[in-house]
């Protein structure tokens, strides 16, 4: 498993907020999917409310 750093922004109640997360995953696509799933479960957001701008290894 490889560690990926994912950065982007998400839609909060008072506007867009930046985020940077480090996730351990098999590849970039899985890391992005985990990011969407985490924001959906913790904040109740849909995929259109989360924008991933960069995925770095």
UniProtKB/TrEMBL annotation:
SUPFAM superfamilies, per database record: RplX-like (SSF160374)
GO CC aspect terms: ribonucleoprotein complex; ribosome
Stored InterPro entries: Ribosomal_eL20, Ribosomal_eL20_dom
Location of the Large ribosomal subunit protein eL20 domain: 1-56
Keyword Flavoprotein attached: no
One Gene Ontology molecular-function label: large ribosomal subunit rRNA binding
Domain of life: Archaea
GO biological process: translation
Keyword vocabulary terms for this entry: Ribonucleoprotein, Ribosomal protein, RNA-binding, rRNA-binding
Family: Belongs to the eukaryotic ribosomal protein eL20 family.
Subunit structure: Part of the 50S ribosomal subunit. Binds 23S rRNA.
NCBIfam families linked to this entry: PRK00773.1-1
Descriptive protein name: Large ribosomal subunit protein eL20
Native organism: Halorientalis regularis
